[in-house]
Sequence to fold (925 residues):
Amino acid sequence: MSKQSTESERFSVIGTRMPGLDEKDKVLGNVVFAEDFTLPGMLYGKVFRATRASARITKLDLSKARALPGVACVLTAADVPHNESVKNVVGQTTEVGLLEAKHQVLARERVRYWGEAIALVAAESPDIAREALKLIEVEYENLPAVFDPEEAMKPEAPKIHGNNNVIASWKLRKGDAAKGFQQADVIVENTYRTPRQEHAHIEPESGVAWIDDMGVINVRYAAQVIEHYRDIATVLGLPDSRVRVIGTLIGGGFGGKEDVTVEVFLALLAWKTGRPVSLTFTREEMGYGRHKRHPYVLKYRTGATRDGKLVAMQAEIISDAGAYVYLSPWVLIYSTVHSTGPYLIPNVEVDAYSVLTNNIMTSAFRGFGGMQMVVAYEAQMDELARKLGMDPLELRRKNFLKKGDVTASYQEITSEVWLEKCAQEALKALGPRSKGSRTLKVGRGFACCWQSYGRMTYLHDTSNCWVNLELDGSAVVRSGIPDLGGGQRESLRDIVAEVLGLKVEEVHVISTDSQVTPPAGTVTATRALYMSGNAAKLAAENVRKIIVDKAAQVLGVPADTLALRDKTVYSTTDPKKKMPLTEAIKHCHFEGIIPQSLATFRAPFTEPITSDLIKDPVFPDFTFGAQAAEVAVDVETGEVTVLKWASAYDVGQAINLNRVEGQIEGGAAQGIGFGIMEDYIEVGGVPWTWNFHDYIIPTSKDIPDIKSIVLESGSGKGPFGAKGIGEPSISAAGPAVASAIADAIGKRVTHLPVTAERIYFALQEG
Amino acid sequence: MSTTELYDITLTVNDREVRGRIQAETSLLDFLRDNDYTEVKRGCDKGDCGACTVIMDGRAILSCITLALQADGRKVYTVKSLGSWDRLHPLQQAFVDYEALQCGFCTPGMLMTAKALLDQNPHPTREEIREAISGNLCRCTGYVKIVDAIEAVAKGEYR
Fold:
């Protein structure tokens, strides 16, 4: 919990430890989460799901379910006005063409994965709805299926949609990889595999929908993306303005509540019945009914000279997209750009593919295709260092990107790169090495990473925020940004308080309502602070200008000599010239000037990607960091204990230190799960791990006391020089623990998670 | 809906008498939530995650795998029994001060497990705290700040 700063002293709020905005209500049990909300006359929805991975539906008889007393409706694809929501995913290869099945509300005639939704039920009670599901009669005829993405790439493989299972491909080309390898003194070649991770937020997907007295469908649900009101409107064939999404405080998301989950089902059931409807996924349904993290196959070849300079890197990257496209092409862009690691490599050749299979669909998850790459590029660095007999940090140090360097995707790095400092600090924080024994081998490892923050620049991302000052000098902020629990809306409070010289208690934030709050965009892509934080800062600065200009006029001093702090506008040159903030506000109102502002922050824009070769900047900026681990491995059982942990990130500028540490610690824990514990297993497309007793996530006994090291270069693109930390915090964790295990047992397990079984078999190989 | 027979039960929840007519298989979690004790959270409904933890007769229990019938005649406490807006319970205050929560969904269960621990063992070690809360899953925090907060109360920082 150390913090090294050069700049924070100039702030009164920013960079300190501010009390959370919602914490008191959370500890008191006062928060009305999505499932806690009820309305009179409310029905309960349930989803009927496929129990085949690839089949034709030969019979679907709903008559018994519909006849059950208390059942209000049973809906199938035939009842959905626009069942397919098709989106043109920019940059698809022409071979594949426009994607025809990004998302489908309910399966029609054919199911493509085990768990696919076929029908919806709404009934007077959850019990009746569950009973109705049992009365739905379905028969299937199995169809050919494919579960291995490499198999699915072959021409003879069964096709999931259309004519080609490869739904996206992206390339990097820089220099000449073949020639580069000729200059290499050592070459390391390995294939790595990463798991299908489940988000496992503790709150299931949930919400309530109703039609209000203006005929607008309201959906109050746990939403990372309130802009899904548009998707709901598209499915129902309604104008966008007839659908309103009210976001709740979210009980964890991590990308799990980024794609469409309950909201379209809820709106359909409310629309068809005219009554309020509640729908919550069961824990099992979260397993087999919602997307996961993409598993990857990463075939890497990396070459370096004797003195440790990287000369060439070549990779083939394959992701398992599952049965529907969702955000897979975007996730793959992240993978491709991040695939080199934060290293300057003169010759690069990367070919990345995302492939449909009959597995559960995969899509957004914290780290979004960037974090899986760390597994490969950092293991390659460790193996190169071993072959060269060089210290692993020294090898990295010789190759780190620097500010001003251009990446293999032809993007200039425009912020500071403090990777060496991050790695040094993380390793130092581990302290003295623990003692092992004959059977308990202690090992240490670390990993460095880069992870973008902000959405891809060709998406032309914007965020709006409205700020005003009340007559008593308190401020109100309105922003559409949802709050995942990371303090996304809270950071707006801190920023506005800083700019307007207020205490955080004097700023109230209204957020996440698609018809009330100015559109602020999604809580995804580590963009919330970057985008909505910048918008809030702009709006607050505009309000500040209104106040200061008016005060300058009244006091008869130049505006640029005035400061605003502790609810007082005062001259920095003449102590006698000052005015309470409330006086300045009154003067504004006398003249019909309202101290308010609606501001828009626009991320840098680039043109859409037109070919599968990435040769232009894709991201606004990157966050850099390192994580270090010490583990003990029982070489008789393969059991791993994480003994020590340290994570160091340059966050540019911390807004609220508590929140930064929260992200760093939580990211490490989730990444340790990815590294050594978690895998959503499907066998022949049949899910095996849909409960917390099958799908094991870290408990308090699995995670050591994480040391968070917060570095502040001040060079980020966010407010006050902040960078994003939500996703970067996970990226290096799995690779760090895998590296520590390799150090402990003298062998590298290249298939994550590095479970006891995999360690045992690696040791058996001798 | 496997049975139709109904049973009358009477229990106290946060020292208030609550009566109900329930089916044999109704879980205590469903019973509590149906009676507007929605501060008791449903995370998995299978006894795995700990979000539904309440205290019954002095012990932290999982209300999702406890039958409402088993609570007949007993005293049940939810997180709302701990403190109020003006006077938070020491554990609640410590959770706020140490930022021992993010989304807050596991928090009501986590607090009740911590309360039961400190009632039985007022001065647990860090390892004992980790052991006690190991049945309460949190996906946001990495647990460090939760252990810090409980330890602070155990060490008397919040008398």
Notes: The domain at 296-400+409-456+609-764 of chain A is CATH 3.30.365.10 (Aldehyde Oxidoreductase; domain 4). The longest strand of chain A covers residues 440-453.
